[in-house]
Amino acid sequence: MRVAAFSDLTGPDGVSITNQPRPDPGRGEAVVTVEACAINRHDLWILEGDSAMVDADDLPFVSGLDVTGTVDAVGEGVTAVEPGDRVVLCPNETCGTCRYCREGPENRCENFSLYHGGLAEAARVQADRLVRLPDGLDTVDAAALPTAYVTALHMLRRIEAGPGDLVFVPGVTGGVGVAAVQLADVLGAHSVGTSSSRAKLSRVESLGLDHAIESTDPDEIRAVVSDLGPVDGVLNHLGGAYTQVGLDVLRRGGRMAICGRTAGGTSEIDVPDLFLGHKRVIGSTMGTQGDLERLVGLVADGAFTPEIDETYPLEETGAAFAAMQDRESVGKLVVTPYSNN
Ligand SMILES: NC(=O)c1ccc[n+]([C@@H]2O[C@H](COP(=O)([O-])OP(=O)(O)OC[C@H]3O[C@@H](n4cnc5c(N)ncnc54)[C@H](OP(=O)(O)O)[C@@H]3O)[C@@H](O)[C@H]2O)c1
Ligand SMILES: [Zn+2]
């Protein structure tokens, strides 16, 4: 089978299309013919050599978390799915024995890791991590859900976003940002978000963004958001200087969830403002398989449609990463390994 492997950790040029033996399922596993796999900034960090998870010794490396497709074969002991089922993978890998695996939520597992391997024509996965897709739910749309939408939903739950709340999303045009806007809308909350691009903001406004701020300047953003009034929650995937901006605009007792570091892995914060304002900062990573199941149900019910910017055949995987690196896209970029056969 063909795979889009990272053969150098030098950015999009480091992607090579190569052949690998098609996998066989072991006990408890399934092999899925991959119809779609969304890419995430997590994959781009790896490809740019900016992830502690993968180094030169691990090459070639096949990334790709967000697998959807059709079950091709199952191993011994698998009853949850059977060949022919259309599925989406929850990429959480958990130990099953620690306190958080026993008591939940599973994404706090002490040995938490993620599945990689979806940028290929077939993927060997844990069968009990597969969620069946209802008829009519497109595999490309479903591929958007496991990382970006699950992370955004989990963060909105952590900040307890509810009807009428105002949620601030710095960097609102990417995978997590657009998901936050659409899901805030589903919850009855309002959103305010930022981008460097007026054209991209217009697209996100058409998806439900209530207040758009075309700026990357923390002082300007702070002033414009403050004019709207104190926000109830912040969904921060940028880190860096945006963390203090988020705290500045947050109401007393408000909550900010952080899941990323695109604008910087360290943030200086005003400590007295934090404690005098009774504000809460919450770290959040991915979500639960239950979150993914809920999202599949919401899409099937027509509550929202995942925003797909572009699909790419497997051999153009490098171009998909270049589009992400160049900040060209709105929503998700999806590689379609099988449809290209
Ligand atoms: N912890 C977790 O479980 C988890 C899960 C998912 C994602 N994440 C993290 O969340 C972040 C977003 O992921 P994603 O897949 O949604 O990425 P993405 O689609 O590439 O996000 C693009 C967004 O980031 C903004 N952006 C890009 N570079 C920027 C910079 N240097 N300064 C300010 N804004 C910048 C873009 O703004 P413009 O509109 O101006 O281009 C756009 O709004 C990443 O850090 C990722 O690692 C974490
Ligand atoms: Zn565990």
Number of domains: 2
Number of helices in the DSSP assignment = 11
- The radius of gyration computed from the alpha-carbon positions, rounded to a whole number of angstroms, is 20 Å
**Cα-to-Cα separation, first versus last residue:** 11 Å
Low-confidence stretches: none
Structural class of the helices, strands and pairings?
Answer: alpha/beta
Number of strands: 17
Protein name: Zinc-binding dehydrogenase
GO molecular function: adenyl nucleotide binding; anion binding; oxidoreductase activity, acting on the CH-OH group of donors, NAD or NADP as acceptor
InterPro entries: ADH-like_C, ADH-like_N, ER, GroES-like_sf, NAD(P)-bd_dom_sf, Zinc-ADH_QOR/CCCR
Keywords: NADP
Question: Would you write up a description of this structure?
Answer:
With 341 residues, the protein is of the alpha/beta class. It has two domains: 2-144 and 307-336, Alpha-Beta Complex (Quinone Oxidoreductase, Chain A, domain 1), CATH 3.90.180.10; 149-283, Rossmann fold. Helices cover 29% and strands 26% of the residues. The protein has helices spanning 41-47, 99-103, 139-143, 145-158, 175-186, 198-206, 218-228, 242-249, 271-276, 289-300, 317-325; strands spanning 2-6, 15-19, 29-38, 66-74, 86-89, 92-93, 113-114, 122-126, 130-132, 166-169, 190-195, 211-214, 231-236, 250-258, 280-283, 308-313, 332-336. Strand 10 (166-169), helix 5 and strand 11 (190-195) form a beta-alpha-beta unit. Helix 4 (145-158) crosses helix 5, helix 4 packs across helix 10 and helix 7 (218-228) runs parallel beside helix 8 (242-249). 49% of the residues are buried. InterPro entries: ADH-like_C, ADH-like_N, ER, GroES-like_sf, NAD(P)-bd_dom_sf, Zinc-ADH_QOR/CCCR. Pfam families: ADH_N, ADH_zinc_N.
